[in-house]
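task queued by scheduler; priority normal; single chain, no ligands, no partner chains; default sampling; output format set to C-alpha cells
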Amino acid sequence: LVVATAIGPFSMQVFLPALPAIQSSYAVTAAVAQLAFSLSALAMAVATLFYGPVSDRVGRKKALVAGLVVFLVGSLVCAFASTITWLIIGRIIQAAGGVAGMVLSRAIVRDVYDREQSASAIAYITMAMVVAPMLAPAIGGVLTDLVDWTAVFLLGGALGLVVLVVGVAAPALGVE
C-alpha cells in the first residue's frame, strides 16, 4: 500500500527534469510542454473524487487494480508518444490512475486495521506521499541524463506493473 500510495506523487514529479528535453524533442514552447504537468495535476484532482465512491460500490481491491491498470496504460502512452498531444493525453491518463493508490490505501487501512494499528499504517502511507515527490526529481534527472526522457515513464510503468502484480496476487488486501 505504501508503494501504491507513492506512485501518484512520484509520477507527478519524476518527469519535471525531463521537461526541457521533452520541449526540445517535440519542438514546442515551454508553456505547451508544461501542460503535461498542469493537466495531469487537474486529472489527479478530479479522479480523487471518484475512487472512494467507486471502491464502495465494486470493492477496494478491484478499484485499486483498475486504477493501476489505468496508470500503466498512461505510462506506456507517455513513453511511446509520437506527439506532444499524445504525451499530454498519456499524462492525464497516468495521473488519473496513479491517484488510486493515494485514495484507496488509506481506505484499505481503515477497513483492515483497528484504531491503533491504523495510526501506524497511515504514518507510513503519509511518509510515502512526502518522500516520493522529494526523491523523484533527482531520479528523473539521472534517467534523463543517462538514458532519455522516455525512461522516466518506463520506470513509472515498471513500478506500476510491480504494484499491479502484487495487488492482484494479494489475498484481497484484507478487503473485497
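post-processing summary
- The chain has seven helices and no strands.
- Residues 24 and 30 are 9 Å apart (CA to CA).
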